[in-house]
User: Fold these one by one.
Assistant:
Number 1:
Amino acid sequence: MSLQFFGWEVTYDDDSPRLELGASQEPKDRGVYTMYHGTTVANARLIIANGFKQSTKGMLGNGVYVSRNRKKAERYPLNINAADRVVLKLHVRVGRVKRIDKDNHPMQYTWSTQGYDTAWVPPNCGMKAVPSGLEEDCVFDPSRITVVDIAQAPNTDLEPLKQLVANSLIKPKAAAGSGAAAADCSLCNRKLQQNSAHVKQTCWGCGQNICTLMTKHVCTN
């Protein structure tokens, strides 16, 4: 008898933050959320290897532009064929969040100098720079963002990019015994405890990168 694998869902009785939040829900300060970023194949390789760099142009000033709405990320970059776009799946530590919901908001370009880590543009807020009406975020510090998977890529580049992500996630964020604060697992977002490594691997059902301590995983294939 053979069984088809679809995934799992568990509930932990601790306060580890959840990763999913609807695009219309306001992100809570210091939460960690799943977001997306659209780019080219070449830039995707650089981002996976070296991390994001701030954009110096945009409606919210300097920062990395991402969205919890995958459809938003799928529109970028605007100047290339849709079939050539790559959508990176991210885990983002938003820190302190400022809501920017109208044109000429007094903190539209200065939020990062006022103690905020992320600016959030809610969906359908009417800002002229967002004609799609889709949710958008700008994260000032690129180190708050971790690439955890490839949500979309050209067929010939999908598996090589997924492997690059898998390799990048194997690298430890903090050395054991170094005295540094415990890091979060980039896949399950739970704290990494000394001498208790998380098992990260490729799901044999769908090929996604997973951690065995994730609260939920559903195969997409």
Note: The first strand starts at residue 7 and ends at 9.
Number 2:
Amino acid sequence: MAMSFFAQFASPSYLGIPLIAIAIALPWVMYPTPSTRWINNRLITIQGWLINRFTNQLMLPLNVGGHKWALLFASLMIFLITINMLGLLPYTFTPTTQLSLNMGFAVPLWLATVLIGMRNQPTVALGHLLPEGTPVPLIPVLIIIETISLFIRPLALGVRLTANLTAGHLLIQLIATAVFVLLPMLPTVAIMTATVLFLLTLLEVAVAMIQAYVFVLLLSLYLQENV
């Protein structure tokens, strides 16, 4: 039973070919391409308005040098939200439940922010490792602690996204299994459990969007420290 619960997180394959590439590439096919006309349809207009609002909100605390990342952050946000939302559909696979994929996003982007800080303002970047006014005996210890916390950042990014989505999917499957088991024996309890399942599904929709936003927001905060 335990293995069947975690089987949903295994990467699917067909004839020995992993299908995770299709699951990653599928979201980009679902979005309409903006046209060159002055007047677009409602879907493209709403899509552009949402992207503009998100980008403006995300780039607000950054200076002009950080605005170069606007396209990357907006694309990553749309990609993560779409992947997370599609993973809530029945008989689908959520690539962002794989820690390797999330770390593949987190580590290069975090490393890019650190390298930008070391190139543009090395004194300020290294100054984050030692808070101002630190007593002299505590300087070596604090440098070690701040260095460790700096290198834990990408791990926290990847694990946070993976853990939240994995826990939500497991909880939905556990409650859905309970509904099917209780339905023949205790229909009233099964209906109450199904109501909880419906509310939990709505919560997971919110979690899918919030976790994508938190992932990109933390990356923008890391970039803010280094530009």
Note: The mean pLDDT is 84.
Number 3:
Amino acid sequence: MNSNVENLPPHVLRLVYKEVSALAADPPEGIKIYPSEEDITELHTAIEGPEGTPFAGGVFRMRLVLGKDFPAVPPKGYFLTKIFHPNVGHKGEICVNVLKRDWKAELGLRHVLLTIKCLLIHPNPESALNEEAGRLLLEDYAEYESRARLLTEIHAMGGHGGTSGAPQDPNDGPQPKKHAGDPMKRAGPSAAAVPAALGNGANGASTTTSNSNSSSTNNVAGKKKADKKRALRRL
């Protein structure tokens, strides 16, 4: 997404810079702020998964994007770390009222971040972007919790939000490892082909010898036939 720095009026930029600086100096509990010196309209954060939820122990990377009409229009929020949650779409988009109809310019970015963190504690299946997560939350909480915990362990426990910034996919899982240590696969021509090549060579030599013997036999037989014809002519 392109920067909106040039689209925002100077007084709005000053207010945003002031608020982001205050957030970085005194962030909300369980949230880290990573302001960008190059683009103040895109705020990267890391949210710790709240205790007592399937997200506990994970760190979820997220970004807020301020559009050209901010603060009249709410920012857009995206999870960069994959998460199985009713209110987070497959591309990471976040559905929460404060980013829609409940937005007010005076609320500020701190309120938005705290609301999104609370969303991890109290999902809202009634406005689900991930319909499967919303259905499981209502009908089979144990399965919902298991799926959410699994993705947390895979994607959110390897550092600041794991290694994931890709589009969301609840079916993602660990990928099989490549077998780089197999010597039969490391060699240029495969080692398994060497005996085969040797075998082919031996077979080739055997075939050549057989053909040579056959040719000698044919020559002897032909000579005998010629001798017989000459003897018959003499009679």
Note: The longest strand covers residues 42-48.
